[in-house]
């Protein structure tokens, strides 16, 4: 009997030592989300950008982000861990630590509703509501395997962050339209983006904004415009509806779909656009077809 009591006492001491001195967080908030890991990742980044006194301190892992908040005299670290459950659902765990008052929080949490619990729940709920509002304004439908259309194109090569892509498109749409119209070049389809490099750690891309045209012997010359033959590719396809600023949500959906179906892909998406963002309108009626090339 004494041995059992001694073992239980040792176990209690070990648990207490782990809880008070080793456990890396003070509190955890959990929630489900009807979207992909990538969409949650990007939504966290765009949400924090509008909050004063916060910054991302580690984004080296795609499914884990570490964020720092300044709340008065306290600095809180939020570690977001995102787990894919299916192709279109995820589970999020947010581990919260008060960098300067962690020990006191751990002592108080079992006995009362502490300030860090209330603040953590309110902060995560703010993000949860923003995420769900965003999901209501976008729609991604996986269509399966398809082939992109071969065409000759006039294009402008561009670089920037993913969320700056729509701005680059809007400027160059006007440029390409004016130059092609002035040169009496016949268009041969809707414009599209050809991503040539995607850095998922920095959310930056290099891409060509392309206008399909009918080739002739007197194409207009311009320092920002180039010409080439675009060749068709086998790909998995999705249809995206929503603001083109966040059309990369379809990239992540295709990436998740490819992984779950063991389809080898190149992370160089092609986006074909059917609406002119300069014309405005209901964004859910904007349509783009998104292709992720299949490796040969």
TrEMBL record:
InterPro entries reported in the protein's UniProt record:
GyrI-like (IPR029442), Reg_factor_effector_dom_sf (IPR011256)
Instruction: Name all GyrI-like small molecule binding domain ranges.
Output: 188-295
Q: Which Gene3D superfamilies match?
A: Regulatory factor, effector binding domain (3.20.80.10)
Any idea what this protein is called?
Effector-binding domain-containing protein
Which organism was this protein described from? Dokdonia pacifica
Q: What is the lineage of its organism?
A: Bacteria, Pseudomonadati, Bacteroidota, Flavobacteriia, Flavobacteriales
